[in-house]
Structure formats: C-alpha cells, structure tokens
Amino acid sequence: MAETKRIIVAVTGASGAIFADCLVSGLAGAGVEVHLIVSDAGALVVGHELGRSPEELWRDKVTAVYDPADFTAPAASGSAGFVGMAVVPCTVGTLGAIARGISANLIHRAADVMLKERKKLLLAVRETPFNRVHMENMLAVNDAGAIICPPLLAFYHRPVDLRDAADHFAGRVASLMEIDVAGMPQWGFKPENP
Ligand SMILES: Cc1cc2nc3c(=O)[nH]c(=O)nc-3n(C[C@H](O)[C@H](O)[C@H](O)COP(=O)(O)O)c2cc1C
C-alpha cells in the first residue's frame, strides 16, 4: 500500500488567499496529510479576502496546525518525514528571510530545513511589480533548490470563474510537488481548441 504523503503548507500575508484555499482543499481531497502553518499576517489577509478565519476554513481538511512561533513543531527539524513544503501565497518578506537563512518564525525555519535536506520547496511569491531585491532573492532560493512559482493565472483551459482559475494554479502546484489532484486539466489540442 502506498504511504500517505505529508506536506507542509504555509500561508503568508500576501494577497491571494484563494490559492491557499484551493491548494489545501485539493491536497486534502487527494488524501495528502497537510500540516499547516499560517503567519500572523497570513491569518489577517485570509480573513480579509475570504471572510473566514484559517481555522474555520481548513480545520477539517488538515492533519495539524502549528503556531508560527512554535519552533518545537516537527517542521522545525530535518528528522520529520515531510516530502516537501509549499508557501502559498508567499510574501516578499518571507521570501527574503528564506533567501538569507533568517529563521525568524517556523515558516522560515521549515523552508530552511527543506533546502538543507534537499526536499521540495515551492514558493508562490506574490508581489507586483518586483524590485531588484525581490528578484535577487528569488534567484538565491532558486539556486538553493527551491521552485519559484508565482500565482499567475492561465486561461487556456477557459476558466469559468476565479475559483476555477485558482484551482488550476493549485493543481499546477500539486503536480510540481508530485501529487495528482483529481480534475486537474492537462493541455491537449482538441477540435474545440484549434
Ligand atoms: C491586504 C494585504 C495584502 C498584502 N499583499 C501583499 C502581497 O501581495 N505581497 C507581499 O509581499 N506583501 C503583502 N502584504 C504585506 C504583508 O502582509 C506584510 O509585509 C507582512 O509583514 C508579511 O509577513 P509574513 O511574510 O510573515 O506573512 C499585504 C498586506 C495586506 C494587509
């Protein structure tokens, strides 16, 4: 029997809480163990954009929730059996901390652990426009082994609404984490898509 995958999902205070909601729902639906860390700013933005707290939205979908100040959590150690971590959405502040190895909270520390253990780390960095510091930090984490995957929408699957578009992005994140999410459309030329 296949072993259940354990993944860390971190939600920081960038705009785009809907992407986190689609990702957590998609991973839970795929039978993945989601271990959730929400930064203080992340909780604020989730409440503002989705009208509900992270707890209300996700408590029934995740395996565990960790306080971002709790450095005793499993995610703080390389010996915990996580296959990877996705930060969705990721602020440029969290990006900067990860790029420079500053473990000021559990999200930064867990990301640092992923890099040192050579595990998958995906950062859905969201800011616009980017300045030079942001771009240098993205290059630094890319070179350290992370995947930079900004939450940019695709339109080739003809999304019917924002949720549909965000679900597509979440599916791309899951597939980069090597997880199959049901319903993820795969591009293929069809008669109606000449
Ligand atoms: C409504 C709202 C939207 C925000 N959007 C972004 C954003 O898209 N990108 C970003 O880097 N910061 C954004 N911020 C600022 C971050 O939340 C702030 O820098 C915070 O300190 C980040 O902390 P964290 O990385 O620990 O979550 C936003 C803040 C608010 C209140």
Q: Can you describe this structure in just a few lines?
A:
The chain has 194 residues and is an alpha/beta fold. It contains 7 helices and 6 strands.
CATH architectural category: 3-Layer(aba) Sandwich
The first-level CATH class name: Alpha Beta
Tell me about the biggest sheet?
6 strands, parallel
Give the beta-strand count. 6
Structural class: alpha/beta
What general form does the structure show? globular
Describe the 3D structure:
- The chain has helices at 17-29, 40-50, 54-58, 92-99, 106-116, 132-143, 162-176; strands spanning 6-11, 33-38, 64-66, 84-90, 120-125, 147-148.
- It is an alpha/beta fold.
- The chain has one domain (6-176): Flavin prenyltransferase-like (Rossmann fold).
- Strands 3-2-1-4-5-6 form a 6-stranded parallel β-sheet, with helices on both faces.
- The longest helix has 15 residues, at 162-176.
- Bound molecules: flavin mononucleotide.
Keyword list:
Rossmann fold; 194 residues; alpha/beta; 39% helix; 6 strands; six-stranded parallel β-sheet
List the helices and strands and how they pair.
Blueprint: E1 6-11, H1 17-29, E2 33-38, H2 40-50, H3 54-58, E3 64-66, E4 84-90, H4 92-99, H5 106-116, E5 120-125, H6 132-143, E6 147-148, H7 162-176
Parallel strand pairs: 1-2, 1-4, 2-3, 4-5, 5-6
Helix pairs in contact: 1-7, 4-5, 4-6
This protein binds flavin mononucleotide.
